């Protein structure tokens, strides 16, 4: 059959941007083609000829063809996509957790690029960049007015090339230039710590090639620091997805061996499968199992999983598996609702097609497509509530999204009202100083949802949400 690599993908969340997909990479192409509609293909060829001969100025033939392919594929659903050389390179960087750049996590503040943190050991870390530094220029280009993606592209490049950053350090009230040599950066997708004696927090921000190894190392570190853990919080908030085999592996860490983690179903034989909590399903036949040395206590330790509207795809698979097997209590808010699977078909050495081939289902057989995982305990983002939750994009908001395939979608009549109220609140918040608008960092001592998760583990009262309610799958217009 050939090597397969399952991938789930990206949604724009803060500094992370991408395409929110679940993908099966296959190095073999299908041998069969459906009968071709000759009349329509003749029309396509005729239009191509007319554009080439009659358009006001000469056109690039190759661009015409690739644009036609892109248009055809993108018309299907939000996640099917044609990859040209550039987008394919970016796609591979995202799934590997490796890219060539300076090594900083960034966000935007007042039109400038703000350093959230330099990645430990990276060129930016060695150059002395600090959290809260503002980047005002990249080489000779002023950052003001650039989108975050444009700024990222300018800082990335080829290995061993140099980029000049102009830094404004607020606490020292000075600007200074820093020349940094780009190199391959390995992103860290796992963080964790002992919150208090007996209780730990571990966060997976994205499922990448190194995630399972990094997860195993972090768990080992925490158990050495606190051998008698009484409870663990697995934080999947704003986790946009990543590698499916990594999601199956993280699920298997906490589940009995060989139970179902996720199943998929579509038209083709390879789209129908069941993935279980067993090394053969998350490791294949390559390498050693990094979970082999995990403490046996992980199978039974009291477990909370934190999710929110930004938890998508692979993170929803983990939450759904642990919920269905009653292995964890899911806390937070309803997840994004990305429940379709895409397959990657290579078209050449550096181009390919990502096409939706199936839906995936939780162990109990539920599709979460356009709905999401409903938490067991609803918890707001802060003690004041979740005022902007209604403004967040969900799968059901995307043009041409698939339905769940499990019953009619229902219109959420209260959502528009909630969005109007949230927009008014956002306008009021935008007038406040930046420091007052910044939400608490995940894992910090001001993380309200984490505090409620620890309370749940201890059997203490939890401040549950009084406003968050389950959203139903919304009815699509009949002409969609």
Give a description of the structure.
The protein is of the alpha+beta class and 480 residues long. Among the domains are: 89 residues, Pdz3 Domain (Roll); 246 residues, 2-enoyl-CoA Hydratase, Chain A, domain 1. It is 26% helix and 24% strand. The strands form four sheets. Strands 1, 2, 3, 15, 16, 19 and 20 form a seven-stranded mixed beta sheet that branches. Strands 5, 6, 7, 8, 9 and 10 form a six-stranded antiparallel beta sheet that branches. Strands 12-13-14-17-18-21 form a six-stranded mixed beta sheet, sandwiched between helices. β17, α9 and β18 form a beta-alpha-beta unit. α7 runs parallel beside α9. The two termini are 36 Å apart.
Features:
six-stranded antiparallel β-sheet; Pdz3 Domain; 480 residues; 2-enoyl-CoA Hydratase, Chain A, domain 1
**What's the architecture of the domain at 190-338 and 362-458, going by CATH?**
Alpha-Beta Complex
The CATH topology annotation of the domain at 190-338 and 362-458 reads as: 2-enoyl-CoA Hydratase, Chain A, domain 1
Which shape, going by the Cα principal axes? Answer: globular
Q: Termini distance?
A: 36 Å
Count of individual beta strands? 21
Rg, rounded, reads 24 Å
Q: Please report the number of helical segments.
A: 12
The CATH superfamily of the domain at 190-338 and 362-458 is known as 2-enoyl-CoA Hydratase, Chain A, domain 1
Q: What is the percent of helical residues?
A: 25-40%
Beta fraction of the residues?
15-25%
Structural class: alpha+beta
Average pLDDT reading: 83
For the biggest sheet, the summary is:
7 strands, mixed
* Sequence stretches where pLDDT stays below 50 over 5 or more residues: 1-29, 474-480
- Return the CATH class of the domain at 190-338 and 362-458: Alpha Beta
Domain PDZ: 88-170
Family: Belongs to the peptidase S41A family.
GO molecular function: endopeptidase activity; serine-type peptidase activity
Protein name: Peptidase S41
